[in-house]
């Protein structure tokens, strides 16, 4: 029961951190745009032929951010946090992960008060350190999915505006007023970059980097090619929209056809853990040997490794690229 108490305390701490972060988040699109505008903390710089997103060094935790920058974590985490729509600096994100890992490890070690419990605490601390990263990636994935769902309608509106005689920037402005977030925030930010002096090509490339969506990359590439080679932009956008809708239809069909296999994979992955909880409820003393003896810890570690490999293998098999 002590292990369950430590797990409960760690989960509570993580949920508390999530609540604090989300309560600090910018809720309105206008406020989010002010927070993300180049005049605040992000600017677009041109590096060769590609536009790169560079965060300014000003931060609430400058020393930690400098240390992270020297090791290459700051820029990568800045992109991930921005794509996840989180108002966090890389230094704050790092401190949150370290705090959660240390508290989890200490709780497990103090509650167990033994060498095996110390080992479990170290492993649990490492897992707790990765937990916020998993949460951020899930938020990134959900936000990209929302943008991908909004993209066909958005591109259709831009194409209609261009066909009606509006310039590209004007069509984007009108579209941003009619669609909702999160894509409206990105469109407005692209317009801010253009108004601050960036070229349309650089603003499009910067938006593509910020979002990190394959569908957005297709749209941006098509627009850039049309601007370099000429042609009817409205027809190009309509063709891209039809292609995206076809891809979405095929993806839905594949998801339907593989639903049974995905369910089987989850059952095979979660069944050992569920069976262990059932045995623990029936005979706690016998199951406690799994984390109080060396042999039990070895077997538990082997199970974690093999089960993780099984989950990743099943997901890789069912991840069909369209």
Structure description:
The structure is a single chain. The protein is mostly helical. Among the domains are: 149-251, Receptor-associated Protein (Up-down Bundle), CATH 1.20.81; 258-322. It has helices at 2-24, 29-36, 62-70, 73-83, 90-112, 115-163, 168-178, 183-195, 200-211, 214-229, 233-257, 259-282, 284-287, 289-292, 294-318; strands at residues 42-47, 50-55. It has a two-stranded antiparallel sheet with strand order 1-2. α5 runs antiparallel to α6 (115-163), α6 packs antiparallel against α11 (233-257) and α8 runs antiparallel to α9. It is elongated and about 75 Å long. It starts with a helix and ends with a helix. The model is unreliable at 25-60 (pLDDT under 50).
Q: Strands, helices and their partners?
A:
Blueprint: H1 2-24, H2 29-36, E1 42-47, E2 50-55, H3 62-70, H4 73-83, H5 90-112, H6 115-163, H7 168-178, H8 183-195, H9 200-211, H10 214-229, H11 233-257, H12 259-282, H13 284-287, H14 289-292, H15 294-318
Antiparallel strand pairs: 1-2
């Amino acid at each position: 029961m002590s292990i369950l108490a430590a797990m409960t305390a760690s989960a509570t701490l993580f949920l508390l951190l999530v609540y604090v972060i989300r309560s600090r988040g910018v809720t309105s699109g206008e406020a989010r745009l002010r927070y993300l505008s180049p005049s605040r903390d992000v600017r677009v710089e041109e590096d060769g032929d590609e536009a790169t997103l560079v965060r300014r060094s000003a931060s609430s935790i400058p020393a930690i951010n400098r240390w992270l920058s020297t090791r290459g974590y700051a820029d990568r985490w800045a992109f991930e946090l921005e794509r996840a729509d989180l108002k966090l600096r890389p230094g704050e994100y790092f401190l949150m992960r370290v705090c959660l890992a240390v508290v989890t490890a200490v709780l497990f070690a103090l509650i167990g008060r033994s060498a095996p419990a110390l080992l479990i605490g170290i492993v649990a601390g490492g897992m707790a350190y990765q937990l916020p990263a998993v949460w951020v990636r899930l938020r990134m994935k959900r936000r990209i999915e929302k943008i991908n769902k909004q993209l066909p309608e958005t591109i259709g509106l831009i194409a209609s505006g261009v066909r009606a005689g509006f310039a590209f920037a004007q069509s984007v402005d009108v579209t941003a007023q009619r669609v909702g977030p999160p894509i409206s925030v990105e469109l407005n930010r692209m317009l801010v970059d253009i108004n601050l002096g960036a070229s349309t090509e650089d603003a499009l490339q910067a938006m593509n980097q910020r979002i990190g969506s394959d569908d957005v990359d297709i749209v941006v590439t098509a627009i850039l090619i049309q601007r370099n080679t000429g042609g009817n932009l409205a027809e190009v956008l309509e063709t891209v929209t039809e292609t995206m809708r076809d891809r979405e239809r095929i993806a839905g069909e594949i998801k339907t056809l593989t639903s049974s296999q995905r369910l089987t994979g989850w059952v095979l992955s979660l069944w050992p853990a569920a069976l262990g909880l059932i045995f623990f409820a029936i005979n706690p003393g016998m199951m406690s040997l799994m984390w109080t003896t060396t042999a039990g810890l070895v077997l538990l570690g082997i199970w974690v490794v093999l089960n993780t490999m099984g989950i990743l293998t099943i997901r890789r098999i069912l991840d069909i690229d369209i």
